[in-house]
Amino acid sequence: MNYLPLVCTLVGVAGVLYAIIVAGMVKSAPAGNERMKQISGAIAEGAIAYLNRQLKSVSIAGIIIFIIIAVTMKVTTAVGFLVGAVASYLAGYIGMRVSVIANVRVSEAPSYGKPVLVYDLKCVGSEAYLRLATEIIQREKEYRAN
User: Fold this and answer.
1) Which has the higher per-residue pLDDT, 106 or 77?
2) Closest C-alpha among 95, 114, 83 to residue 47
3) What is the enclosing helix (H) or strand (E) of 127?
4) Can you tell me the mean pLDDT for 67-89?
5) Sign of the CA dihedral 61, 96, 34, 129?
6) What is the 3-state secondary structure (H, E, C) of 77-121?
7) Using N-to-C axis directions, what is the helix angle for 75-106 and 34-72, rounded to 10°?
């Protein structure tokens, strides 16, 4: 018997549960002072506006592809494409929301007397700071070598 669809479904459910747990942990961290919350709200508003505009643009192409698949292949294949497209959009939307929230929480790190890299090493903000520091060090080495 082929258990692949069941295994894929269970892995997907486990991934969603993990994402919910991590999002809850991120949201439970301190959000900072009122000014930080205001800036965070503006960033979130811009991110959502971007995603909504992207949805409008990509939906047109998605509808055309859906119709082509439905006509040239099976309708069930087209429905599968549609489900995948919706799931992909939801993943992007949720990911954008959580990353905005997480980055605001990381900017709260100095309030606790901790550098960002110690406060939350896995955060996108921490990774960006680490890449920036690495680039600065590399450029300094190149500058001194010349």
Assistant:
1) 77
2) 95
3) helix 124-145
4) 93
5) negative
6) HHHHHHHHHHHHHHHHHHHHHHHHHHHHHHCCHHHHCCCHHHHCC
7) 170
**Is there a contact between 115 and 109 (Cβ–Cβ < 8 Å)?**
yes
Instruction: Note the pLDDT of residue 126.
Output: 72
Read off the pLDDT band of 1 (50, 70, 90): low
Token pair of 34, please?
């009122």
Q: How many helices (H) and strands (E) does the chain have?
A: 5, 0
Residue 124: per-residue pLDDT? 67
Residue indicated by tokens 């929480």 = 105
Q: Determine the 3-state secondary structure of 59 from DSSP.
A: helix
**C-alpha to C-alpha distance for 139 and 41, rounded to whole angstroms:** 35
| CA–CA distance, 88 with 12 (Å, rounded to integer) | 13
Question: CA 75, CA 69: separation in Å to the nearest integer?
Answer: 7
Reported pTM: 0.62
